[in-house]
Structures are given as C-alpha cells and as structure tokens.
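Shift notes (night). Ran DUF3857 domain-containing protein while the centrifuge was going.
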Amino acid sequence: MHQGDSVILRVQRGSDRMIRNDYLYLGVAAVALVAASTPAQAGDTPIYAPAPAWVDRKPVPEVGEAEAEADFSFLLADRQTRMKDGIVESYSNYAYRVNDASLLAQFGNLSESWNPENGDFTVHRVAILRGGQVIDLVADGQKFTVLRREANLEKLSLDGVLTATMQLEGIKVGDTIVFESSTSYRDPSLEGEVNDVEALLDNKLDVKSAGLRILWPSDVTMRWKAPQSAGARLAKRGAVTELVVTNPSLTKIDMPDDAPTRYRIGPLVEVSSFADWQAVSRTASKAYAPRATIAADGELAGVVAGIAARTSDPIERTAAALRVVQDDIRYLFRGMENGNYTPQSPDKTWSLRFGDCKAKSLLLATMLRALGIEADVMLVNSTSGDALQDRLPSFAVFDHVIVRAMIDGRDYWLDGTRVGDRIGDIADTPDFGYALPVTAAGSDLIAIPVRPLGRPASKVTLGYDSSAGITLPTLFDVTVSWRTSNDNNLKSSRGAVSETEYTKMLDDVIDNYVPNTGISERSISFDEASDTTTIKARGLSWLTWDRVDGRYEREFNSAIGSKKLTANRSKSEWRNIAYSVGTKTHVRYATTLRLPDVGSGFAMVGRAAIDERVLGTHFEQAATLADGRFEADETWRTVAREIPAAQIVAQRRALAAVKADALRIEAPSDYPGTHVEAMLAARAHRLGPIMDALDKAVASAPKDEIAPLRSRAYVYELTQQYAKAIADLDAIIEIDPSAGKYLWRAELYARSDKARAEADIDQAFAIEPDSLDALKQLVELRLDHDAYDDALSAIAEREGLGIEDKQIAGLKASVLAAAGRGDEAMAALEAAGRSAQKAPELISARCATEARYTLGADRVLADCTRAIQLNEQPSGPLINRAIAYAKLGRTAEAIEDIDAAIEIDPDSAWAYYLRAVIAKGSDAARDRTYAAYIDPDVTRDLAKIGMAR
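Came back to this:
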C-alpha cells in the first residue's frame, strides 16, 4: 500500500473510527480509539455541540466488581452512522476506566486528526465519571488544541490534516473517561453516493457494552454486508431504515501467517449505495475523464511528441512513457481540495513535478493514449486485493490506482508510483488480485493475471576454487546484481556514511551469499539504464563438507532444497484455507566449484537436472561435474499467487520427493583430514593464493573486523607457523577478548611457553569461571609436564564453581591414573555414579581410564562398547577400545576400531600413530608422518600409556 494514499481510507470510512488515544491497555490487546474526520461544512477548529438528534444515545454502564478490580476496563464502545443526501455522519461514544496510576499518562491524552477542507470534527462531551459525580471538562473550559502540521509528510503525504489534542486535567485512579463525538463527510466526487465500512471489535477487548447502528432514508436503495455471527438486523422506522448489529464484538479467528490476505482482514460491516461495480467505475470516470487531456501547446505535449519521434514501437513507447512518469515525477499524496478521489490534471502534475497514485496514473494513461496506445486507469487494493470479489461494491475498498495498457491484445499493468521499471519489466503483473477499470460505460472487477517476472530481480554468479583442498579456506569470486529499485539502501547511503561504515554494509550483503568470509576485494556499481546495482567481491570462505559414512560430502544448497512448506492446516477452521506463495520473485543463480587433483575420485550424486513447479514456483536446475569442475545453474520464478488448500498435501509430497534425491558431491573415501591436507598442500606449494588472499583480506577489512584475522591464524596453525598464528591472535584478542580466544592462544603457547599458556588460561577463567574447556586445557598442560599434584590442585580449585561433578570426576580420574594411582582413579569414577543413563560421560571416562592404564580388565571392553553406543561421533571411545584390544593382543579388532575412528575423525593423531605401530604395514611410515604433523607430541603422549614404539 502506498502510505501517502492511506488517507483515502481514513477519510472515507465514516464511522470506521475510534478515539486515537495512543493505546488502550487490555492485557495483550490494544485498541486505538479513532474518530474519522470531515463533515459537510469544513472548519479548521473543533465544534462543540450536543449530539445530533438522530443518535440513540447509550448510557455508560455501571462499574461492577470485575471492572473495579481491573487495571483497565473498556466500558462502552458505541458507534452510529447516518447516511443521507450524500453525507455520512458518524457518531461515537467511548468510555473506559483507568485503575492503575502508571496508565494515567498513557490514557489521559486524547487526540484527533481531520482535514478541515473536507469537513469538521464535533465534540459532544469529554467527561470524567467519579463515583456519583459527573465532571464535564468541556463545560469547565477545557478545549482541544489544534496542531497545524503535516503529520504524514515523512510518508510523502501532503493531506492538510490537522491534529487536535486534549490533555485531560484532574484525572485520578479509578476515574471513568468518556469521549463522545461525531463527524460528517461528503465528497463531491461520489456524485451523491455514499459508502461506509465498519471494522467489528475483537471481543478480546472485553467491552462491557458495545453498539453499532447505521441509518439511511427508506427511499434510498442501500446494499449491506455483515458476518452472519454479527447478528445484523434490518428494520424500517418510517422514513428511516436502520441496520443494527446486535453483536458488534466478535471473536477474532486466528489465521495462519501463510494464509492469503482475504482471510486475515477481520470481520467488517459494509454499507454502500452503489448498485454494482459498474456504478463505482462510472462514478470514478466522472472524476478522471474530464481531466484526461494534455494542452497542445504545453511542455508535456512536447515530451509526448519526443517519445513518438524516437520510436513507433508501442512497447518501446509504453516503456518510455512509464519511465518519464516514474523518474521525472516524484511521489507526493495531495489530499486537499477534494484530492482523495479526484486526480490533478496531467499538465498540472507535469508542472508541479509531483503527484500521487491518482495523478501519476492519469498522467500515464493520458500520455499512452496520445501515443496511440489503449490505456485505462484501474482502481486496486494494494494490501488485500484478493478479497475484492467478496467485498461490497464501493470506493472504500480501494487504496491505490494503476494503469492497464492493451497492446496487440495483451494487457500490461503499469504502476507510475514505482521506480526503476524498464522495458523488460512492463509485462510483469502486480500482486493486487483484482482491479476495477475506470470507464464511462462502467466495468466489472477483473482478475489481474499472475505472470513470472520478466527479468530476474537478482542474479548471482559465485565461483569457488577449492583446488588447494576442500577442508582449507576456499577462494571465491562473487558477482551479485539486483534491481536497484527493489533495494536502494546502498545507493542512497553512498557518500552519506563513512567509508568504513559503507564497507561494512557491502560486506553484510556479501555475507548473505558467501558466509564466514575474509573479503580481499570488493566493489559496487550502479547502472541507471537497467536499474541495476552490482557488487563484486573476492576473498575466502570455509565451505562446509560433512563427514558421512567415512567420507566427505557437500550437499548442493539449491533453492528447491532449501524450500520449506510449513503450512499448518491442523485446525478444523483452517482446513479450507489456501496457502499464500508470498512475494513474487525471479532469481538466477550460477555456481562453480573447482575441486582438488582435477576432481580425481570425486562424484556427483543425486538429481542433477530439475524442471519442477512446486509451491507456486518454477524451479529449473542443471548441474555437471567434469575435469574437476562442478557447475550448477539455477532459476526460480513465482508462477502462482497461492496454492488451494486441497493441493497442499500433494505439494508437500512433491517437495519431499525432490529433496529425497538432493544433489551432493562426494569426495574419495580415503580423502585426508584438515591437518593432513594442509601439510600436503604446503609441501605441494598450493597455499600461495590462499595466503595472498588472506593477507589482502586482513589489510582491507574494516576496523575491528576479526574474521580475516581468525581465518589466517587458523591456517598458520594448520601449517605449524605458530608464532604467526599467535601474532594474529594477539590482534584478535585486542579487538574482541573472549574465553575461547584466550584458550586458543594458550594451546599455541603450550608448545613453547608454559607460563604464557597458563596466563591465558587464567584469563579465560576470569571471563568464564565455570569453563570446563579451560579446566581441561589446564589439566592437560600440567600433565604434559608430569605435574600431577598441580593438576589435582587445579581441579580442586574449580570444584563448586559450576562445573558438573561428573566432569570433575572424569578429569580427576585421568590425572590419578596418569600418576599411577589407578585404584583411586576408579574410586573417583565409582563415587560419581555408574548409571550411563544419568551420566554417559562417566562411561566414556571409565573406558579411557581402564584402556589407557590397564585397569578394570574384566570390564574395559564392555565399558568402551557402551561408550561407543552412547556417542553419536564415537572416535574417542573407538580409539580407547582399540588400545584395550591391542593390550589384549587382539590386533585385528584393534585395527578395525582404529579404521572406524579415522572414518569419523580423519584429524586424529592418536589413530594414525596407533595404526602405524599396531598394523605395521606398508602405510605405517605414512601414518606416522600424518600423526606427527597433526600433533608433534603424539609420541610422547602415547609413550606414557605404553603405546609408543
């Protein structure tokens, strides 16, 4: 909805109004009590007068026990409307009781807005009821203060609306506030016709007394519509016909968020003197047709002539005229001078260089007709247009105006209030559901067709280079382009924010497409001719490769693969509700990925080609893998506005069927882990491009951005350049200190500087006193130096600080066992509890202690087997069981467990070393090399448990 045009609804809806009192507090409910504006006699100050004689005034209900105890009570909400001689007079009487001091400021201020050029707002009573006392604030001299300002100017709305406010004086806790007012409204453009729309109250507001009454002369044919549950009753009272809604507060039926808007607009009572949609169309035409001219000697005529001279092609002429209206005429709503329904003339719009949807549409339609193109002005509802066919014919149902052009038998739906539409877009259709042509002969509603967008709203080309290794940082090159008019933020912000802030904005966009990046180069450009914004960037990303059944695999994150259908139709009242597809889109996405070793051993598994219509979207996908290069090209376009309820189950099945065969890339089964791959890449001199990109990313990163530093530090660690990794961590911690970062640096210091490692662990404890990771790292550090008593002291110091007893017990057992105090180790585990269901960690700890230190020989295998069963990724328990098997001389079973552990975790130094010393095969030297590279201390550590050879 164009916010500037919202006044059309506000002014025309008569008694669809409440006292705008900020918010009325009712638990989780809030109501804005609004008074609509504008009577037959216009005035720029409120009128103070008794209620009209036609009003059947309701008394304010007595305050009962429930209202006396509530913080807030809504006592009365009475609305009455009279429609006569083209005038809509609306009356309201609201009363509410405030019983909480904190609410007095919120509800002690009344405010009202109206347009003095179209009518008046009349105050009948503002009173305070206190006990048996009635305090008439107006009689006591309180008046509304009129604020002369354009309240909606920030919404590009120049409506002439005034705001009147009254700060209620002397109100106290327990007071009942009464506000009684009426308005009248007449718009010459309606040619004496009237219409009114009343939103029924939500009974969650718990109004003690509510009323809704609408009157009109009996000799006038009036159509009306109301929900059956509202209990509307029609009766003739002599010369007056009366529509009384006996149940003006209805239970609001909750609707799923994905329901089309027609299900969510709430219950309405509609009244209209228009016989049908043709009558509405003819009446609108009387406002538009006389103004649909262009002065022959005016500047606008020259603009039209220039377009005609440039091209004779009707499509090109249409696109040129639309661009003039969109780009050369700025949007501004004018609600003065009967501007709610009456447009300004094309020449005036051109002269002013601004106009609202009516003015822009009339300008466009008139220009197109002058260019020999059939064009009609069309009334639409921009927010709930799919409900128009169920609404009563009236002006009240429309909030926007567009144009339909007809060229060679095809319709083109054009919106002059948009920006950036080009020739490739003019065949697109808006998501407004239905439209009413404005014609002299009168027209009925017509459905707006649903067409895919003519050109992509966005295009992405993303190239990855993982030729150095799939577990290492991946080089990327990305180009993202989109319709500038769809997202103008980066264009409007350029030059308005600092260069650093603008770089962060660019990086945020890039991160949407390439997460976890270090960006080395970035640029942005704008193409006015195509209304396109383009970002280009290079850098590094960590692509996720999952470990599944002993091999790496990466699922291709296709659009249809990430599509979800969460439509919940479990409630009986929801079963026949359609599913709204949502915002129309058209996206083109091209991805390439270079694999290591020219793709040797890699395979593409799953459905490579897709051409499916699912959930109102047409998905197309084509993927190939050849010569180490994976390529995928995707397009998805919206082709339907909604899915009928009867088709939701079938659509869910269709989506599941496509996802069941999702495309993925599988690596060879013997593909190495991250550390080994880093070693092999370094020895083959494949890391140069990655390090260059990391250096550039660090240098070009915005201030305080740590992601590139973090990536480079990790690569330095992988390649055993520990001093450089520590230097990067120094910079990271300076920017963003955390327990995890201190522990990372401590792990690196542990190889060369025990004191600094302990100092960093202390810093981690200072941030997170209950950090189990910090305690583990401290214990391991002291065990590395055989400082068993110091390790036990460290554990004792942390008991009772939030670390779980079972974790403490496991650490204590590992230290006692390493110190040769096996019986005490097992006793510590026994004391902590033996139930695997309560503490499976204890089973794993017992397995490790028994296997490594040859304890509990009678149950070590059972404990390790149970630990394997309890862990989702049991590489640790598998290694410990392998140690137990090896010590028992069961070599084949040990090797089987080690192989299984490596399948789960190909970065386990212990697993490679143990396989080397147990299997003693032709690959033993390779396995020792791998183990030593992953952990240079592996031989020392395994020697302590008798497994180093």
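DSSP finds 29 helices and 42 strands in the chain. The longest strand covers residues 72-84.
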